[in-house]
Amino acid sequence: AASSWLIYRFLYRFTSHTVISLLAALVISFASTYWGQMIIAEVYALNVFLSLLFFDVLMKIREQNNVTARQFFVLGSVGALALSNHWPIFVITGPFYLFFIERSWVKKKNVCAFLGGLSLVILPYLLMWWRSLQGPEVSFLGEIQSLKDWVKYIARSYYSSTDVSV
User: Structure pTM?
Assistant: First the structure.
């Protein structure tokens, strides 16, 4: 529902027409592929929300005259959440966001604030490593015992042997 609301906001920004934006957001929200991915217990629903939230924050920054480093920290933090939830989707959509960044924003304090927020991506992964050592009731791949195991987990290298068909 939150993703659908953000889709509506995105469409309204570009059309300025409430009914068209609402109908288009509903069509997208109830499309079979989108709906099917949103109702299963997987990473995609949260990642769609976080990616759309990243874009919404970016658009909010674009609409304001007074751009602050705090806004870029928030932008980086939302990006960090999206990266730690399912990094491949966010990395693939990343170049799209570059089209909405204005050259005047690229200042040292804004870049540092963005990277500071983005550096928070490490926290969920560190928590995952720490928690894996506590002997949890459910552990997908077992304990993460070394830096090499941790990198393999983040890189999702265990998927490489899942489907070996042509």
Answer: 0.76
